[in-house]
């Protein structure tokens, strides 16, 4: 070959490299993470006033779980429908960034399932963090807007794809395709969870009406069982598939019908929301399944060889904590990550009662979300609150209900109610107070409003109010004591 031709060939090769899509460029290898020490579960709890938000739970052994943040939500959606379900948590390969992607849906607001499926949000809600403790404000990504006739975007998941050096976000959308309206799994690719590629069809089950909503992929080190990736999908059964490429072809390995488990088609124990987890330090995996049909919550089936469905077995040696765990995801934690998470949300704040100075047999309590002072409160938890750093100012205090986690005492029209935290700055201000020396007795306490500093918490005719304090009776009525 002549020197001129050789140089031309070299230039052409260089030009081709420059013109390759970014996804084809050489990628840095993922950083080696420290050994894993614990587990973090992100989940929602149900259709209650605060149930469709992001909750965290922690486990040391992967089977026994403890609710974090006193059982209250960790993240609140302030965008879209102002509620989220199905949170999926993903870590960057370098271990220096995390995202949570969730369904933008709040059934508790009165939305019907039919409206949600056919005229719902086509966006997903995203949060970002660098330390699992401090999270960004949420934002929306309209992943399904370009799908013709898309009715929704549900149950998102995300996984890093080493083959392309970016993340695959996949979810279910209900739409008309080839004359059939049903849920199918679609995907986009993204490097920052803000911009993304056009949606592509990912999973569609053959047959007329059989849709698919929930699916989750786990990467298996060393291709245990013969594949690098395994996928569990709720498609009438709980179908297990294997592949060596996230976006390549998948091989069906079977389902869990031999365990009496299905997603409805096979009857038996009807479940949804498959959620993978590898046990730390060993080749054993748990597939958590939500027993929604019976309301019993998640149960694990475990396996040491995902390549064979006959290897799965049911387990009974687990505890899920106080709250109901609904469709979410599990992140294995390094010791440093675990320490950060538990340092922020792991401590249990003791329960207090708020005793009235003028009527010392009476305590602040909620009843049908109204707030008053009563004696002999039953159930006792109606008069128990956790005194936490102020929602609007950590130098102040807020009062969170013990039996309604995520609900706080707040003033509204200068009256008091127990209300779910909606994540707004107005709510935070209305639920924050400065604890000062008691106006009627300095050995007790009074609570000055954060956003109306000329007003204090007081009782009047046994009702709790926020009032200016102008005389001795008002000073006494505005005096309280925190007791156990």
TrEMBL record:
UniProt xrefs under Pfam families: AbfB
Signal peptide: 1-25
SUPFAM superfamilies: AbfB domain, Arabinanase/levansucrase/invertase
GO BP, one annotated term: L-arabinose metabolic process
Molecular functions per Gene Ontology: alpha-L-arabinofuranosidase activity
InterPro entries the record matches: AbfB_ABD, AbfB_ABD_sf, GH43_arabinanases, Glyco_hydro_beta-prop_sf
Protein name: Alpha-L-arabinofuranosidase B arabinose-binding domain-containing protein
Protein keywords: Signal
Alpha-L-arabinofuranosidase B arabinose-binding domain location: 353-481
């Amino acid at each position: 070959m002549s020197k001129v031709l050789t140089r031309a060939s070299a230039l052409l090769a260089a030009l081709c490299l420059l013109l390759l899509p970014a996804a084809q460029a050489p990628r840095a290898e993922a950083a080696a993470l420290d050994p894993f020490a614990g587990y973090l579960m992100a989940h929602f709890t149900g259709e209650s006033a605060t149930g469709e938000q992001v909750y965290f739970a922690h486990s040391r052994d992967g089977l026994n779980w403890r609710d974090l943040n006193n059982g209250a939500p960790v993240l609140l959606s302030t965008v879209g429908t102002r509620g989220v379900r199905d949170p999926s948590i993903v870590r960057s390969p370098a271990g220096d960034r995390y995202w949570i992607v969730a369904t933008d849906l709040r059934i508790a607001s009165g939305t019907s399932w039919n409206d949600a499926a056919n005229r719902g949000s086509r966006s997903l809600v995203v949060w970002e963090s660098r330390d699992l403790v401090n999270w960004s404000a949420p934002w929306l990504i309209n992943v399904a807007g370009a799908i013709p006739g898309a009715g929704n975007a549900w149950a998102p998941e995300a996984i890093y794809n080493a083959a392309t050096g970016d993340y695959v976000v996949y979810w279910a959308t209900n739409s008309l395709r080839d004359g059939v309206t049903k849920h199918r799994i679609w995907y986009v690719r993204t490097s920052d969870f803000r911009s993304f590629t056009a949606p592509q069809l990912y999973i569609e089950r053959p047959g007329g009406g059989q849709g698919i909503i929930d699916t989750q992929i786990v990467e298996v080190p060393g291709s245990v069982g013969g594949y690098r990736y395994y996928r569990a999908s709720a498609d009438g059964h709980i179908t297990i598939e294997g592949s060596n490429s996230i976006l390549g072809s998948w091989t069906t390995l079977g389902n869990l019908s031999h365990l009496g488990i299905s997603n409805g088609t096979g009857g038996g124990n009807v479940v949804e929301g498959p959620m993978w987890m590898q046990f730390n330090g060993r080749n054993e995996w748990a597939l958590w399944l939500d027993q929604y049909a019976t309301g019993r919550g998640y149960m694990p089936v475990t396996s040491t060889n995902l390549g064979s469905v006959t290897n799965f077995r049911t387990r009974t040696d687990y505890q899920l904590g106080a709250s109901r765990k609904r469709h979410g995801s599990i992140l294995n934690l390094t010791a440093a990550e675990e320490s950060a998470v538990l340092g922020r949300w792991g401590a249990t704040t003791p329960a207090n009662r708020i005793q009235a100075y003028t009527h010392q047999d009476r305590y602040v309590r909620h009843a049908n979300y109204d707030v008053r002072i009563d004696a002999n409160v039953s159930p006792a938890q109606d008069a128990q609150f956790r005194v936490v750093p102020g929602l609007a100012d950590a130098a102040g205090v807020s009062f969170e209900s013990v039996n309604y986690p995520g609900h706080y005492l707040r003033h509204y029209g200068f009256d008091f109610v127990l209300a779910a935290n909606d994540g707004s700055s107005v709510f935070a201000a209305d639920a924050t107070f400065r604890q000062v020396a008691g106006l009627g007795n300095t050995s007790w306490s009074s609570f000055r409003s954060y956003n109306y500093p000329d007003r204090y918490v007081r009782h009047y005719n046994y009702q709790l109010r926020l009032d200016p304090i102008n005389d001795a009776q008002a000073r006494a009525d505005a005096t309280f004591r925190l007791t156990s």
